[in-house]
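Batch 3, record 17
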Amino acid sequence: MTNVADTAPVPGKREIPAGRLQRLRDLVTATEIDLRLFGMLLALAAILLVFNVLTDGRFFRPVNMVTLSVQAVSVAILATGMVLVIVSRNIDLSVGSLVGFIAMTYALLMTDWLPNILGMGPDFPFRWLIALALGIGLGAAFGAVQGFIIAYIGVPSFVVTLGGLLSIRGAIWYLSNGAAVTGLDPTFRLIGGGGRGSIGETLTWGLGIVGCVAVVVLLLNGRRQRRRFGFPVRPVWAEVLLAVLGCGALLALAAFANGNYLAPGLATEYARERGITEPPGGLKVPAGFPLPIILLIGVAVVMTWIAKRRRFGRYVYAYGGNPGAAELAGINTRLTILKTFVLMGVLAALSAAVVASRLNGATLDIGSSYELYVIAAAVVGGTSFAGGIGTIPGAVLGAFVMQSLAYGLSFMGVNSPGQNVVAGIVLILAVAFDSWNRRRGTR
Amino acid sequence: MMGETHEMEGATAIPLVEMRSIRVSYGGVHAVDGVSIDLHEGEIVGLVGGNGAGKSTLMKVLSGAQLPDSGEIYVGGKPAHIQNPRDAKAYAIECIYQTLALSDNLDAPANVFLGRELTQGAGSLDDSAMEDATRRVMGRLNPRFRAFKTPVMSLSGGQRQSVAIARAVHFNARIMIMDEPTASLGPAETAQVRDLVRQLKEEGLGIFLISHDIHDVYDLSDRISVMYQGRIVDTVHKAKVDTDDVLAMIILGKKPEEASSEELAELQI
Ligand SMILES: Nc1ncnc2c1ncn2[C@@H]1O[C@H](COP(=O)(O)OP(=O)(O)OP(=O)(O)O)[C@@H](O)[C@H]1O
Ligand SMILES: [Mg+2]
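Prediction for the assembled complex:
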C-alpha cells in the first residue's frame, strides 16, 4: 500500500530462498544471543589459545587463569561503572587517583586511625567492615562532589575529573605524609584473594550449582513474562540450548577453579589446622573461586540489574541516546548524571579494597593510570563515545581481554613497556573495528 | 474576544488552556512576540504560519520545553506554573514534537514510556507490560508496526513518528499538542492519524494542531490561528473563512480585509 510500511522481517516470508549461512544466522537469532558479546568471548578464547600454543601449553592452566582473573578484577569492577559514565556522554579520569586515595585510607584506618583515634584495636569485631563502609562512603562523597560540579554547575566532566586526577593523587601524599603504609586486617585481606581468600572446593561447586539454578530460573521467568502477554517466545530447543550452555560454562568454571591448588606452605597449614597428616608428595587442596572473583561477579550482576531493570539505568541510556529527548520526557537528567558519578565512587572503593588487600597496604602510586585501562576496557567491550551504547558484561569481558594480553605477554617475558605498546594498539584496533562494523550498517 | 469567536461552548465556558501575552526571544530574535491563544475541551485549534513564524516555540512554552520571557498560562481558568516538561505533564499536557524527541538507542516501548516506566515488584522495570501496552496503542495507530524490539534509530521516519504519537496518546492527556504529526507519514498512516485526531476530539481533548498542510488543518480544526513573525495575525472560526483566506494571511501576515487588492492579486498568480 505505502512504502512507509513496517519493515520488520517476517520469518518465512523472505522472497529469496535462505542460504545455509542465512539459516545459521536464523538459528542464532532464535536464541537471542548477543552476537557482539559472543564475538568478544570468542576473541578472548582465541587470545588464550594463542598464548597457550606459544608457551607450549604452559599458559592455560588453572593457576595462571586464576592469577590473571584476580589481576583483572580491580579494573573490571571500575569498568562496569565507566560504561554508565561514558554511555551518558561523560568521562571519569579520576578513578585511578580515587582508588589510590581510598586504598591509602583503608591502610591508615586499620593501622592508625581506628586503633589510635577510635580505640578499635585489632580484636574489635567487624573492623574490616567498618573500614570498608567508610571507604565506600568516602568514594560516594567524592563522586557526589564531582558529579555535582559536572551536572549542576555544567563544567565538562573531562575537566572536572582531570582536576580530580591531579588533586586527589596529590592529596594521597598529605594523607600519609609521603609514606607507604602496610598492615591490614587479616579478614580484610581476604578480599584480595590468595589461598586463604578463596572459598574452597565445596563452596565453589555449590556456587556453580546455584548459578546453574539461577540461569534456569531466569530463562523460565523470561518465558513466563512473555507468555503472560502472549508474545512470541523462543523455541524450546533454543531455551534448552541456552540453559545447557549457561550451566555448562558455570560448572566448567567451577571445575577449573578447583583445579587450582593451595600453595605448598598453605596446604601444610591447612593440614595442620585440620589434623590431617600430609602425604609425602604434599597435600593437594583445591582452592576454588577466589573472593575477588566472587566480588566481581556480584558487582557485574548488580550493575547489569541497575542498567537493565532500574529506572536509573534506563535514564542513563536514554540521556546518552538523546539528551534533549530525555529532558523533554521529564527525566531529571542532572540527578541522573550525578548518580553515575556517585556509583563510580562506590565502585572505586570496592576496587581499592581489592588492590589494597593484595598489597597488604597502600603506596603513593597505587591505582596510577587505572583510568586509562578502565576506559580501554569499556571501549574494547563495545562502549561508544558517541553515547547511549555499551553493556556491563561487555566491559567486564573487555577488562579480561586487556588483562589476558598483558598477562600472556609478561608470561612470555615481554616487559611492561612492551605490554603497553600492545595494549594501546589493541585499543585502537578494537575501536576501529567497531566503527567499521557500525558503518557497514549492521544497525 | 474569545467568547465571540467561540460559539460551541457559549460565552461563559472556561477555556481548557489560555496563554496570555507570551513572549520568547532568542538573543535579538523575537520568536514569539506577545501571543495570546486559547483552547477549549473537545476543540481542535490549527496553528499555521510560514517557517520560523514561531509556532513550535509557542507550543514549547506550553509543553514546558521553553521558558517564556513573560506571559501567563491558565489551565482550566487557574494560573499554571510550567517550568519544565514534568510540570506540563502534571497538567495532562502532552506534546508530539516536530523533532520527535526520541532516544534513538532505545526500542519503541522504552521510548513510549520514557520518564513514566511501568514497574513491578521492588520498582524493577516491567518491560513486558510496557511492550504489551505499546502493542495495543500501536494497534490503533499503525497496525503494521512490528518492530517492538529494535532501537528506534533503525526505524523508518513514519515508524518513528508512530512511536512519538503513541507516547503522547497513551497517557490520557487532556491537552494535546501535535507539531507536524504527519510530516513523514505515508497516505495510509496519515489517514490513521487524522482518524485518531478526530477520535481524541470526541473524547473531549483539546488539541493544538500545527501543520503546513493547509487542507489538513482546514478539515480538522474548529478554529485556525495564523502566526506571522512571532505574532498572531488572527484567530478565525473555520466556518467564516476559506483556505484561500488562510493562505493569504500566512503569506501576507495581514487579515484579508487589511490587504490591498494588489497584494491579493499577486497571490493569485
Ligand atoms: N533554540 C533556538 N535558538 C535560537 N533561535 C531559535 C531557536 N528555536 C527557534 N529559534 C528561532 O525562533 C524563530 C521561530 O522558530 P520556530 O521553530 O518556533 O518556528 P516555526 O513556526 O515552528 O517554524 P517551522 O514551520 O519551520 O517549524 C525562528 O526565527 C527561529 O530561527
Ligand atoms: Mg516548527
